[in-house]
Amino acid sequence: MNKFLNINYLKTGSSRQQQAFKEIKDLGIFKKLQQYDPLLAGTIPIGIDIATSDLDIICYCEDHLEFSNLLQKTFGDQDDFQISTKINEGYKVTIANFNGVNFPIEIFGQNIPSKEQNAFRHMLIEYKILKEKDSIFIEKIITLKKTGLKTEPAFAKLLGIKGNPYKELLKYD
């Protein structure tokens, strides 16, 4: 969905989305990560975030050492900055976490184009489902999230999807 390829839609969204836009701009995240094709994924773009939701920024990263060094240099002075590189589901990933002014922030890089990463694909599928469902469904998702359930398992529970919710949601049509 083209809407999510540029964060400008956040400027006219909910107050929380507007706050997210301001924080991303104030920190210069997308500008500083431009070469890594950053995209905002997760619950904030689709309006099902809760108070503890973070800004999930996914990036296309081929050289993890270079990416790590840039993240350390650029955001290493942010509150509670942490960075790690590990293998996740067969892919090398680099993840930086820190606290912005209003949001916890996670920057995630892997050697898969940003638009093809599961986080972005999940968000698009969830957005499509939300557009097809009513406000009661949306409130149930948010309520499940407030009880500690992650987003994909919450969708799977309400939709009756069996098996691994992260894998099965990608098949949902």
Fraction of residues in H or I helices: 25-40%
> Mind summarizing the main beta sheet?
5 strands, mixed
Number of domains: 1
What is the ordering of alpha helices and beta strands? HHEEHEEEHHHH
Strand share of the residues? 15-25%
Q: Tell how many strands the DSSP assignment holds.
A: 5
Q: Stretches where pLDDT falls below 50 for ≥5 residues?
A: none
The CATH architecture can be given as: 2-Layer Sandwich
Report the total helices: 7
What CATH first level would be assigned?
Alpha Beta
The CATH homologous superfamily name equals Beta Polymerase, domain 2
C-alpha Rg (nearest Å): 16 Å
Task: Name the structural class.
Answer: alpha+beta
Instruction: Give the integer mean of the pLDDT values.
Output: 96
Physical arrangement of strands within the biggest beta sheet: 1-2-5-4-3
Q: Say what the CATH topology is.
A: Beta Polymerase, domain 2
What is the 3D form?
globular
Give the termini separation: 15 Å
